[in-house]
Specification:
- Helix 7 packs across helix 8.
- The relative contact order is 0.14.
- This protein has a five-stranded mixed beta barrel.
- It contains nine helices and five strands.
- The protein has about 200 residues and is of the alpha+beta class.
- Strand 4 and strand 5 form a beta hairpin.
- The longest helix has 12 residues.
- It is globular.
């Protein structure tokens, strides 16, 4: 298993980064929050989880080992794969997700695309006693946030990221329209995405 990667960041997307390790560019899927800690041209270190399938090897990266542990733990529940696990962490974040599971807050869990009432109840039932130990500190060496982007290109990027998380195109479009005037003038794409996710959870 590839437990971590460290190298120079070659590319940063909303939900992935490319880290050059030993001359090889490694595509690492991340949450938007983790992606914003990486900056092109700077070194980054990420805790990682390698998901092996018959036809693919997919690497997922996290700014903290506790976040990676949560990613792997939620997948022990039947029906939760890496894509849904990453969506859970993208929408709620590791601390909020752990708190919701510990409290048995199924209502909060159902704000995540792909999780209904029954799935939320199953998650709480199977994970409530497991998540208390999943806490840690960020991995040393993560990059700094990228500079702010201009105003309009963020719309398409945020819409694409929301659809990738499981929201419908209409939900994503409405969320993007809803935050257009709410963000600070110097907001970057990640800020717009966080505001859109917050709006979708209301």
């Amino acid at each position: 298993m590839i437990a971590s990667v460290r190298g120079v960041v070659e590319h940063v997307g909303l939900d992935h980064v490319v880290v050059v390790v030993g001359g090889v560019g490694m595509l690492v899927h991340t949450t938007p929050a983790t992606a914003t800690t990486c900056h092109r041209g700077q070194e980054a270190a990420l805790a990682t989880s390698l998901v092996v399938r018959e036809d693919s090897l997919t690497l997922y990266g996290f700014a903290a080992t506790s976040e990676r542990d949560m990613f792997e733990t939620v997948q022990t529940v039947s029906g939760v794969g890496p894509r849904l696990a990453l969506a859970m962490l993208s929408v709620m974040g590791p601390d909020e997700l752990a708190a919701a599971l510990t409290r048995g807050d199924t209502k909060a869990l159902t704000t995540i695309p792909g999780i209904g009432a029954k799935s939320a109840q199953r998650l709480v039932l199977e994970l409530k006693d497991k998540v208390a130990a999943i806490h840690g500190t960020p991995v040393a060496g993560a990059g700094t946030p990228p500079p702010s982007s201009s105003a309009e290109p963020w719309r398409e990027q945020v819409t694409e990221a929301l659809v990738g998380l499981g929201y419908t195109a209409k939900q994503a479009g409405d969320a993007v329209d809803g935050v257009a005037g709410d963000a600070p003038a110097d907001a970057d794409v990640a800020t717009y995405l966080r505001l859109a996710l917050r709006g979708l959870r209301r």
